[in-house]
Design a protein that fits this description.
single chain, mainly beta, seven-stranded antiparallel β-sheet, 7 strands, elongated
């Protein structure tokens, strides 16, 4: 089950959306995702626009982590599992896209950086990043 709430200013130069999800099944869980953006128009005419839309996204979730540890029970070493319910920030994403619109064609090139956060005894997670490229064409079907 998902619920979203968003707010933006009239000129759409900045905004935020909060999404909440509740996951059913054996292991019930929930997550919150916050998407935040700042939209800067660098140049704009009737048929041409260049925009930079900086975005910060945060993923916060409840999860169950199980850790196996050796413990001593009656002077014997035994492997025992411990489970922890954790609600924490899991990932931060920074998006740096530059888009160009010419008539009905859109081009976008961007750089995306993911900053995962280690939880409990997880090893430090590696930062990942990649470039994105998209091309779109908008056409009128009402003619």
């Amino acid at each position: 089950m998902d619920v979203s709430l968003g707010i933006k200013n009239i000129k759409r130069t900045f905004g935020t959306t909060i999404s909440a999800s509740y996951l059913f099944y054996r292991d019930k869980s929930y997550k919150l995702i916050s998407n935040n953006y700042v939209n800067l128009t660098l140049r704009s005419t009737r048929n041409f626009a260049v925009r930079f839309r900086l975005a910060f996204n945060f993923i916060i979730s409840k999860q169950v982590l199980t850790v196996d540890k050796n413990v001593f029970l009656d002077d014997q070493k035994v492997l025992k599992s411990f489970s922890f319910d954790i609600f924490d920030l899991l990932n931060t994403q920074i998006r740096l896209p530059l888009s160009v619109r010419k008539y009905s064609t859109d081009f976008e090139v961007g750089y995306i950086l993911n900053l995962p956060k280690a939880v409990l005894q997880e090893a430090n997670l590696k930062t990942t990043s990649f470039f994105s490229l998209s091309i779109g064409y908008l056409f009128n079907i009402s003619r």
